[in-house]
Automatic annotation (TrEMBL), chain A:
Domain of life: Bacteria
Keywords linked to the UniProt accession: ATP-binding, Nucleotide-binding
Annotated family: Belongs to the ABC transporter superfamily. Ycf16 family.
Domain ABC transporter, chain residue ranges per copy: 6-248
GO MF annotations, alphabetized: ATP binding; ATP hydrolysis activity
Keyword Magnesium tagged: no
InterPro entries on file: AAA+_ATPase, ABC_transporter-like_ATP-bd, ABC_transporter-like_CS, FeS-cluster_ATPase_SufC, P-loop_NTPase
NCBIfam families to which the protein is assigned, alphabetical: sufC
Keyword Nucleotide-binding: yes
Name this protein carries in UniProt: Fe-S cluster assembly ATPase SufC
SUPFAM superfamilies per record: P-loop containing nucleoside triphosphate hydrolases
Coiled coil: none
From TrEMBL, chain B:
Classification via SUPFAM superfamilies: Stabilizer of iron transporter SufD
One biological process term in Gene Ontology: iron-sulfur cluster assembly
Annotated family: Belongs to the iron-sulfur cluster assembly SufBD family.
Taxonomic source organism: Fictibacillus enclensis
Protein name, UniProt field: Fe-S cluster assembly protein SufD
Domain SUF system FeS cluster assembly SufBD N-terminal: from-to ranges: 88-169
Domain (SUF system FeS cluster assembly SufBD core): residue spans on this chain: 175-406
Pfam families: SUFBD_core, SufBD_N
Superkingdom of origin: Bacteria
NCBIfam families assigned: sufD
InterPro entries linked to this entry: Fe-S_cluster_assembly_SufBD, SUF_FeS_clus_asmbl_SufBD_core, SUF_FeS_clus_asmbl_SufBD_sf, SUF_FeS_clus_asmbl_SufD, SufBD_N
Amino acid sequence: MSTPNLKIENLRVSIEDKEIIKGLNLEINGGEIHAIMGPNGTGKSTLSSALMGHPKYEVTEGNVTFDGKDLFEMEVDERAKAGLFLAMQYPSEVSGITNADFLRSAINARREEGQEISLMKFIRELDKKMELLEMDSSFAHRYLNEGFSGGEKKRNEILQLMMIEPKIAILDEIDSGLDIDALKVVAKGVNEMRNPEFGCLIITHYQRLLNYITPDKVHVMMQGRIVKSGGPELAQRLEAEGYDWIKEELGIEDETVGQEA
Amino acid sequence: MSVETSFKYDKDYVSKFSESRQEPQWLLDLRLRALELAQQLPMPKPDKTKIDKWNLTEFNHISSKENGTELPEQVKALIGEDGEAGNLLVIQNGKTLRSSVTDELAAQGVIFTDLVTAAKEHGDLLQKYFMQDGVSVDENRLTAIHAALVNNGAFIHVPKNVEVKAPLQAIYFHDDEQAGLLNHVIVAAEDNSSVTYVENYLSTNNEGDSVSNIVSEVFAGPGAKVVYGAVDNLAKGMTSYIYRRGRAGRDARIEWALGQLNDGNTVSDNTTHLVGDGSFTDTKTVNIGQGDQKQNFVAQIFHHGKSSEGYILTHGVMKDAASSIFNGITKIEHGATKSNGEQTERVLMLSEKARGDANPILLIDEDDVTAGHAASVGRIDPIQLFYLMSRGISKAEAERLIIHGFLGPVVNEMPLESVKKRLVEVIERKVR
């Protein structure tokens, strides 16, 4: 199996005619964990939503290839089936569909007819992964995200990640709203996934998640672009010193997108 | 083939028809009076739905098709494995194909038979209920046509204090593209009795231009309980006008579990009169519209008796360019003190062109009551779709999941397993 590859070149994305991503380049390979950090409003979540194909975001320029194929030629479900996954910052609630039924549909959507996962195997896998994520087994039979707390929703996103086993996953502020115990559990789930066939892009504005998931590369995003890249030490410096030194270094007055200085 | 209008069915025709059925004099008289009214009365006017272009009056009265002796496959599928041995009525194109009751039921003095037999053998009892206090002959042109030309149906009579354990099942199957479906159901439960009745309407006429004119009348005597389940699944080629009406006596209970899932234009009016003190009704309906289908659904409860309780729960899904009106009406009459009326209507629209209109109406002429309503109409949430699709689920499958999720809570609350099962089947086929 070839190593997964997601390559983003000169990406520009708008929402309601306002440009948020302004020429972004990034390449993620299997076995790598990247982190994108940056203050609020710099376009981090826009990047993740646009890559997955969120209906509100319009890609105006640039190329993204996923394992050599044009990502933007694919529908949302095709991107997912090709191996892309987005753990969302605000997962939807869907009434009337149980978590377990939903997960089975998602797994079977990747399989040929007649090759569906057996119920026993599915339940075994689900039990194992829910235990690892310290989720009560009742969650399997609750409606998808309905009435879940913020932390429960985030764990549920990681559960989906682990059950679906994508090639490249984007985790969009998976750490927001999590207490330290929940954060460790989520990190445990992600670390469990680490292998050469799996690449990951973690989007966060706090360094604390990166204490538990050590990234290979750290990128800083401002004004809709990646303005600085480095290793894990970059995240630590950001935690200690904030973003001002980067703004100063690069002569940026306001880091957010579309704000006049 | 020529299509005759109902007015070709004159006095002479109706007299001969009634005579050929060996009907009692009162029924002939009622038919002839109805025939006259059919030519004078206006059409019904369902609120907010124009039906003046709908064909509800032109159809062949009697099917020229001969039924086989075997049950059609579609009917067998509905009955299930043990159904044929139980209490079962099957009517195909207006002609009775099966009518059976168990010995146990017969020993209890329960009548469960087709309308043709009821008119012949239980004329006096039928007269007590047939279009008297439930649906009246002279309400409008369609009720008059119904009375003049009603063809078959079911008559159920449960004597005092008799509890019928097993559900009575009726299937009205139609595969004649020209013939009208003029079906009449009476469920009469005497004091302190109980009965469960489940009906399925099914037709195959996707083409053609046929008419169904259906009336059900339910009478629950003091302390009686009637559970009435129905799954309507008439094909696209059939335009339907359906009345289901109940009257509940003192401490009586009527539960309606209705799947209103026709493929053709439909008006479906479900009304319950809570006549007696302490009477209770609960109406649950599941509805789907598709294609360019137009529908009008009424769920209506009149509280006359003191401390009466009425509940309505309706969920509807509109696909494609379908449009539907959902009118929920709770009327609490003066004197119906301590009554409680609650209703909920929810409509989910799947496309830009689909239309759903939910109108919850509370009309209250008494101070000492409680009542409430909730209604919502909304389009499918694109973010929800995105979420499901981002896990690899196709758009069609994601919509299917959302529809099941939307209708599921009502389906799961239905009081009858057989209705639940059938609803899931029909919903599955319609949302695919």
